[in-house]
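Work Package 4 report. The design task specified in the project plan requires that, given a folded chain encoded as structure tokens, an amino acid be chosen for each position. We show below one input record used in the internal validation round.
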């Protein structure tokens, strides 16, 4: 049965199962080789996007294997792709999840049309079959309810009591800095030695790779709040091993950056039960921004230096989760 909780607008979709290497080898050789070539030579994709596209393309071709008789890619039609979109919708995937899978196939189609078509006769007349598709209806699984400062304090208190120093550092940094989880793991221990000016309650980080196209992405420097710095230091002092990076774990004698799955499990298994509501890594950036705006900080400054957005419309549209209850009460007064 689909999972339900008080934050939900609709049930959580079951995840599409992972296409293992063994399953992938069952798919016809031509399709496999085209996907592998596309991933290998596409320099416009970041490493993270490559991982996402590999997973999404494998899922698409597994669908063609199971539902379309493993047909060669050049014979797949717009009608076939609409069946795939319907298949994803029937499984209850969110609009964003479906859009990601559509984008991965569309990008692959563009590669076939622009690069492969001239070299392989069967693809001479190939056209991107994802073009002209009807828009994917927007939906949302959860109400976006920010983590309040009082809830943040409860998380900190509980994690301190359990001496979960890595968790403390992660929560304090995610809530006070507003970096995405993929950016958090790039913070280096050198940050802890940066000089602190007498009149400042933050330091500026080294450059981290932000979300964006290409390997380099968008270069960002984050403002590291003193609370975050405090718990970063506490974690590094207690972890008993050295690393260039702050957010790492040691397993089997090897030190590695924490993964997205670590953050997901930490939020689901540790933080959600503490607060009695669903907590997800993505909520921390919005919670950080919302808390600052609730305390009267200027939207332009928050958007530029915390959210790192090109304009305030993105910050307001997606990360400002204030409920404006007092203002709404005065509308008809």
């Amino acid at each position: 049965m689909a999972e339900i909780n008080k934050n939900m607008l609709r049930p959580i979709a079951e995840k599409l199962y992972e296409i293992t290497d063994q399953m992938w080898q069952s798919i016809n050789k031509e399709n496999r080789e085209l996907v592998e070539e596309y991933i290998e030579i596409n320099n416009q994709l970041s490493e993270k996007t490559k991982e996402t596209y590999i997973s999404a393309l494998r899922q698409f071709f597994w669908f063609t294997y199971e539902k379309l008789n493993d047909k060669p890619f050049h014979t797949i039609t717009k009608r076939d792709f609409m069946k795939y979109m319907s298949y994803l919708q029937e499984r209850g995937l969110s609009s964003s999840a479906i859009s990601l899978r559509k984008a991965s196939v569309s990008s692959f189609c563009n590669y076939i049309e622009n690069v492969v078509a001239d070299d392989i006769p069967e693809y001479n007349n190939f056209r991107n079959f994802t073009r002209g598709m009807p828009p994917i209806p927007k939906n949302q699984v959860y109400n976006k309810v920010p983590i309040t400062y009082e809830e943040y304090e409860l998380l900190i208190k509980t994690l301190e009591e359990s001496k979960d120093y890595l968790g403390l550092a992660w929560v304090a940094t995610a809530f006070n800095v507003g970096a995405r989880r993929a950016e958090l793991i790039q913070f280096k221990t050198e940050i802890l030695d940066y000089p602190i000016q007498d009149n400042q309650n933050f330091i500026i980080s080294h450059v981290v790779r932000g979300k964006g196209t290409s390997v380099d992405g968008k270069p960002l420097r984050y403002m590291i709040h003193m609370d975050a710095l405090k718990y970063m230091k506490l974690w590094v002092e207690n972890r008993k091993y050295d690393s260039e990076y702050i957010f790492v774990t040691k397993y089997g004698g090897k030190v590695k950056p924490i993964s997205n799955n670590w953050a997901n499990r930490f939020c689901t298994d540790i933080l959600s039960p503490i607060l009695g509501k669903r907590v997800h890594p993505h909520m921390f950036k919005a919670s950080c921004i919302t808390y600052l705006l609730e305390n009267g900080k200027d939207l332009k400054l928050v958007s530029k230096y915390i959210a790192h957005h090109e304009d305030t419309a993105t910050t307001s549209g997606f990360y400002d989760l204030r409920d404006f209850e007092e203002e709404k009460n005065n509308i008809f007064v």
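The beta strands are 202-204, 208-210, 218-220, 223-225, 248-251, 254-257. Validation will be extended to a larger panel in the next phase.
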